[in-house]
Amino acid sequence: MDLDDLLDVYGTYFVRAERFPRAIGDGVQWIGGCSALFLDRSKPDLAHSALNAYLVTGRERTLLVDTGHPAVWPGFSAALDRALDGRPLDYVMPTHPEIPHAGALTLLHRRWPGLTVVGDVRDYFLYHPEVPDSAYRSMAPGERLDLGGREFEFVEALFKDLPNSVWGFDHGSRTLFPADGFAYFHWHGEDACGRTTEDLDFSPGPDVYAVMTEIVSGLELLDIEDTVQKFLRLTERTAPSAIAPAHGTVVTDVPKALQYLEALRAADRAA
Fold this sequence. Notes:
- With 271 residues, this protein is of the alpha/beta class.
- Helices cover 28% and strands 25% of the residues.
- Strands 1, 2, 3, 4, 5, 6, 7, 8 and 13 form a 9-stranded mixed sheet that branches.
- Strand 9 and strand 10 form a beta hairpin.
- Helix 7 packs across helix 10.
- The longest helix has 15 residues.
């Protein structure tokens, strides 16, 4: 597909079926794709934002972090079916009510009508009237779900896109799911989309993270250093082995991701 062809499908989300689902830890599978952000006829590059969801599988129950974008439903649902391997989807935790994170909630409920939507679930009924009130279960930071042999903890979202953003932490694999935190754009390419930072031998620096830090809700009102310290205390308590953001890509060398904190500090100084 050349640049002119891509211009015709600007905004379409691409799912790389051959790479997903992908195991990123014990009992955690990455299901994702990329979205076209902008095109420039003067250069043959296409800026992408990763679009990720994650399936956490316990002995007794399964949980999906984010719903996937409804525009990619055929490919996404096929990858999710492969990841579930015949099991039902028991829980879904949308990190916040935006289309890439919660847009396919109705589609998931149609496919698995017994699933429960968990987390900060206020206002989701406005976007998904087909999902009954009985399907929602509000869970606050600090509460945990027992998936069977592993616990999934709901975590306060320190860097928020929307007021009811929520993070998660899987104690079985020690994976932190920070929603829109730790996100960055990348250039489209066969060697880029659907790859971890370790695959790419790439460490995103503060300049790479900087653009996505601008979406942090109320950044100018936050005490950035206090928030950074809260995050460092969170990582000290949980000792994550991987950071799995909704955008950006999976980082299994956690210290590499801490450049995001420096990007936040730089944005604070600039403000």
